[in-house]
Amino acid sequence: MKLSYYVSKITQMNGDHEVHDQNxxxxxxxxxxxxxxxxxxxxDAVNDAKKYYSEADGCQFCSPDCNKR
Length: 69
Prior knowledge:
The protein is mainly β. The chain has one helix spanning 42-49; strands at residues 3-8, 17-21, 33-39, 56-58. The mean pLDDT is 96.
């Protein structure tokens, strides 16, 4: 099932921009996120986010498989 994914425009302290799915409790506000599109996996969404921000990472809560930690 495809989900809509967004990347945060806000840089985290480690330099990453987090990628969140549409259902994430930590999804940034509308003004602080960029819509990436619909993807089958967070990996595809993170790869797409890297077109905008070279340091992109999956949210540890909604996309833990794509989180570097």
